[in-house]
Amino acid sequence: MTTRRWVADCRYHSATFNPVGELGFLPRVRVIETSKEQRGQVYSPAVNAILFMSVLFLVLVFRSSARLTSAYGIAVGLTMLVTTIQMVSVSRNVWGWSAWCVALVSAPLFAVDLTLVAANIPKIPSGGWFPVTVGLLLFVLMSIWNRGRELAAIHADRTEPLDVFLRDALNSGDRLARVRGTAVYPGNRAGMTPAALKSNIRHNGVLHETAIIFANLSESAPRIDEETRIEIRDLGKGCYEIIAHHGFVERMNLPALLESLNGRLGNWNYDPAHTTFFLPRDEVAKGCSHGALMRWREALFGQMSFHSATSAEYYGLRPEDVVELGVQIAL
After folding, report:
1. Residue ranges per structural domain of the chain
2. How far is CA 224 from each of CA 48, 240, 284, 322, rounded to the nearest angstrom?
3. What is the spatial distance between Cα 287 and Cα 176, in angstroms, rounded to a whole number?
4. What's the whole-model pTM score?
5. Cβ-based neighbours of 65, under 8 Å, separated by 6 or more
6. Rounded to whole angstroms, how far apart are CA atoms 221 and 207?
7. Any idea what the Cα angle at residue 49 is, between residues 315 and 127, rounded to 5°?
8. Alpha-carbon distance values, 75 to 44, 67, 264, 294, 324 (Å)
9. Pairing of strands 206-218, 239-246
10. pLDDT tens, 49-63?
11. d(C-alpha 40, C-alpha 52), whole Å
12. At what angle do helices 2-12 and 45-62 cross, to 10 degrees?
């Protein structure tokens, strides 16, 4: 029984939490691969701790499985209703079904779902309040995080294009020192200048002989074909932009990706001993949303951003290979 529970817990993390986090609805947390043979089997200590505390809370409050029936009924009913609503959205916006076809298929489902939810509404005071409260809390957190990321992306679009920034930096009157080795600057916006690259050149005045600007794009598909995963742009003078696509169930491993580029960037080959990763350490500036987010939502987004996993963990990097540069996020 213990083994079955452990396997079920790993599958819960793999099937539910990992896609939600990769799609950008929750902050990054530390994720550990639990299988060397099968992809997507993951374990998150933070999520496991939350599940443990939730189980303790349920045991202390409800004390018996019989008293959990009220909570279970409303949870199942609302899950079925939300799934039907999502099916309607997908069938109209993705599959392109006609309104009559959607209505014909969804009407019986809505009838069953609404009947089940209505039958369980009177049970909310006796235990049904728990799944409703958890659902509302998760919705608030996910909506705040998603909205904050949208505002941050809008601000990022106003940054200087990568081609223009490198051209001005390399051809400016101020001498830019070129140092030996490879510098990697990960980011999430293709064609845009990463904040760590801009800060390093502005404050330190150096650029490595080989500079790789890495744009990591998460797609809505679970997995990406290897032939279309990597795009390479030669920016000249030892600078390259690498655009990598990955599915929402795939784990990013930046060293392995760089090793796969051996022989594709001229005479360059990946050497971990002479490669430095420059990562931004984001900090949300207070009052930076200018009314786009309410103060409490802005403060909550800042706390979620502060406690999210570091970029080094996300990209699978060793701490000794990383240089973090503090960057303030304006929403």
Report:
1. 2-155, 162-329
2. 28, 22, 32, 27
3. 35
4. 0.68
5. none
6. 36
7. 130
8. 24, 14, 52, 30, 43
9. parallel
10. 888 888 888 888 888
11. 22
12. 120
CB 133 within 8 A of CB 166: no
- DSSP characters over 161-207: BHHHHHHHHHHSSS--EEEEEEEEEEESSTTB--HHHHHHHHHH-EE
Full 3-state SS string of 4-65: HHHHHHHHHHHHHHHHHHHCCCCCCCCCEECCCCCCCCEECHHHHHHHHHHHHHHHHHHCCH
Instruction: Give the SS3 label for residue 109.
Output: helix
pLDDT band at 87 (very low <50, low <70, confident <90, very high): very high
Contact 210, 181 (CB under 8 A): yes
* Residue with the two structure tokens 């802005």: 298
CA 62 to chain centre: 34
User: How many Cβ atoms are within 10 Å of 166's Cβ, its own excluded?
Assistant: 22
pLDDT in tens, 135-168: 899 899 888 888 887 777 776 666 778 888 888 8
Contacts of 16 by beta carbon, 8 Å cutoff, 6+ apart: none
